[in-house]
Amino acid sequence: MIESAGLSRAQLRRLLRQRRRALSISQQRQAARRLYRQLAQHPLFRRSRHIALYLPNDGEIDPQLLLREAQRRGKTTYLPVLNAWPATRMVFQRIRPGERLTLNRFRIREPRPNHARQRKVWALSLLLMPLVGFDPHGGRLGMGGGFYDRSLAYRARRKNCQKPTLLGLAHECQKVDRLELASWDVPLQATVTDRAWYGEEDRRTTAPHSLRCQSKR
Ligand SMILES: Nc1nc2c(c(=O)[nH]1)N(C=O)[C@@H](CNc1ccc(C(=O)N[C@@H](CCC(=O)O)C(=O)O)cc1)CN2
Ligand SMILES: Nc1ncnc2c1ncn2[C@@H]1O[C@H](COP(=O)(O)OP(=O)(O)OP(=O)(O)O)[C@@H](O)[C@H]1O
Range of 111's domain? Predict the structure, then answer.
């Protein structure tokens, strides 16, 4: 585990990104299979109808086995898409098996923007988020663009809104002892790695999903 004391967020990000990029193809494959086993039969995954994932980039743990399994089970699946304007916005768009993808400005594959296929983030059931780093208490470090933070900012205004369930995905080697929460950081319900669960997933599996978020814009 990395000790964060004395390191800036930028330094931590660099170190953690190097670590995940250093994993070999076979280590990545094994991590992806283990992640799949951690989640595929979990009630949070089984009960969710609208699931957003990501396509792996920069050594991120690969959730594509879960993507295909969700599609096989008839769930609706979504990927993040970066808006051309305003350029700081990220939206979630439905993705179907075999759909053609393009490269966004960071050279990450994403569906061609199509407004009719986009869904408000609070109408998703489960959001699986790519992490650069995490701590065992719900803290996370992303790529630094603030895309996830901004798309989740509604949570601070609507405390009752529990949708979607936020799960971070990472390699075990991305664990940090402690990450300071910035004022805009939205804590994760749990982080799942190839080795373990970190967080409070059990509490949320028994609580009914709040529907309050669906009625308002
Ligand atoms: N797989 C995946 N998809 C995702 C994200 C992600 O983290 N992972 N995002 C989550 O936010 C969004 C993209 N956010 C990103 C933010 C910064 C950089 C990045 O690499 N920055 C470069 C500088 C690149 C440049 O300016 O040309 C760098 O830090 O070196 C990439 C993606 C949307 N899609
Ligand atoms: N709700 C918000 N409204 C406006 N700007 C925000 C908001 N949340 C984050 N930001 C901006 O985004 C930038 C990146 O934030 P941070 O370093 O926490 O990124 P991150 O959490 O690693 O990235 P991401 O959210 O994309 O995974 C910050 O400089 C911050 O100013």
Answer: 9-199
